[in-house]
Amino acid sequence: MAQVVIANRLRDGIVVFLGTNHTWVEQLQDCTPSESKEDGQRLMDISQEAADQQEIVDPNLIEVEKRGQTWHAIKMREEMRAKGPTVREDLGKQAGN
Q1: What is the pTM of this model?
Q2: Which of 76, 66, 59 has the alpha carbon at shortest distance from 6?
Q3: How far apart are CA 69 and CA 22, in angstroms?
Q4: Does an H or E element contain 58, and which?
Q5: Cα–Cα distances in angstroms (integers) from residue 70 to residues 37, 57, 58, in the given order
Q6: Which of 17, 4, 13, 8 is nearest to 57 (CA)?
Q7: What pLDDT sits at residue 66?
Q8: d(Cα 65, Cα 1) in Å, to the nearest integer?
Q9: Which pairs from 30-36 meet CB under 8 Å and 24+ separation?
Q10: Which residues pair with 68 in a beta bridge?
Q11: Which of 40, 45, 57, 70 can bridge 34 by disulfide, Cβ–Cβ 3.0-4.6 Å?
Q12: Which residues of the chain are under the pLDDT cut of 50?
């Protein structure tokens, strides 16, 4: 199963993902998911270093799947975190904010 690292950026609390170039990005689409247990562990090691440096907090691997041309979190909780507030679609990432 494909996985990416999700966390919260410490300075502003925004949900971020460990991106393709091992930088923290705000969009799931800017990630290259791991396809193996070993690669997932390597991403978690990189994430733990960022947590130790107080860049991010609470890094976790989440499962993702490709639907069409875009990546989506498997679990609803993580999908909601990725999109932002769910009570108003004119706010958060789904509104382009």
Answers
A1: 0.83
A2: 59
A3: 21
A4: strand 56-67
A5: 22, 25, 24
A6: 8
A7: 93
A8: 8
A9: 31/4, 31/64, 31/71, 33/2, 33/3, 33/4, 33/64, 33/71, 34/2, 34/3, 34/4, 34/61, 35/2
A10: none
A11: 40
A12: none
